[in-house]
Amino acid sequence: FYSLSLSLTGSTCSSSTGSTGSSSTGPTGSSSTGSTGSSSTGSFLCSLLTVVEWVPTRVRTIVGTVTGYCYTIGQIILAMVAYYIRDWRWLILAVSLPFYAFFLYSWWFLESARWLVLSKKPEQAVKNLKAVAYINGRHAEREKINLEVTTGQRLVPGSYSGVDLLRTQTLRTITICLSAVWSVTAFAYYGLSMDLQKFGVNIYLIQVIFGAVDIPSKIIVTVCMSTIGRRLSQCGALVLSGVAIFINLLVPYELQLVRTTLAVIGKGCLAASFSCCYLYSGELYPTVIRQNGMGWVTMMGRLGAMVAPMVLMLVEVKVWLPGLIFGGVPILSGIFAYFLPETLASPLPDTIQDAEDRHFKQDSEKEELALKEQSNSPLKELA
Which domain holds residue 303? Predict the structure, then answer.
């Protein structure tokens, strides 16, 4: 219950982020949209990290998807609000006002017990754990929580920075691959969203359709993440989005219904990729640098979104060139995602060493499986 309540801020964050795409001019407009976008991004990121660190492993995928649906609801609400409020100033004000309510609501949130233990604050961690147990109605478990519960966690002295994201080979692989996944997902996602007028459909209606397609796509990716794993789900979502965009290049402009359908499918796959990478990234980075890691990859996502409008201008050079780029880079980033470690049913790593141990454990399991398959090979028996 407590974990689900944390995800309620997502819809407002999404509406506010989307509103920054409204047409604003001048220094005042740039300042207001910039502050709104940066604030909503930070709020969404903090709420997501709090959810990841509080939610048990067995339900983390479901709760992460619920958080993603808040983003979907925000997209649909934004289209409705923007339809009636055409002036960008009043639109930004309308979608930003709910933040004041969430500002008061956020004081009820509790700091992550996992982070408190690693920060040498076990007493506060125990207090927060008892509070959450009380909220969830687990009174028997609440009485058993004491300082001994936190003794199994290793205290890590010192502070951490962004440099630690590249400290070890495992973290370098994670950071480089996630940077590619995030930047390309945001690049293609916002590239499609910014070019709605080319589909010949009412821009507000297509925005609602683009938001509604997230509903089935996130259900599918949730099932995939819970069965085949995060890595293959991430790869599949990116590759399928690229394929849909490529096919759209071959469809004549007169067949607007087919073109719109393919664009919606591509956008749905990219939404599934977003839903996956938000959860996947939080599981890959250890607690001591999770905030730094998530901050870095989301920044890479924003850089990808910034490049998208520039690529759209290439239509003046060749009409098919933007589609070729928007379809090609997701397939390429899907290859990057394949080199990430799998996190399905794995506990969250707390330290950098935990992340290293998980990687080495997976490598050893792969080697054992390969040796077992080799020993059971029919060719070996014939030899």
Answer: 160-372
**Exposed, middle or buried, 368 (CB in 10 Å: 0-12/13-18/19+)?**
exposed
Instruction: Report pLDDT digits (tens) over 163-212.
Output: 889 989 999 999 999 999 999 999 998 888 776 656 566 778 877 877 88
H/E segment holding residue 359: helix 352-375
Enter the pTM of the model: 0.78
Distance CA 125, CA 119 (A): 10
Question: Which whole-number Å values give the CA distances from 74 to 21, 70, 78, 188, 270, in the listed order?
Answer: 14, 6, 6, 20, 17
**DSSP type of residue 348:** P
Least Cα distance to 322 among 222, 143, 151, 194 occurs for: 194
Asked whether 326 and 192 are in contact (CB, 8 A), the reply is: yes
> How many folded domains does the chain comprise?
2
Which of 60, 152, 139, 143 has the alpha carbon at shortest distance from 113? 152
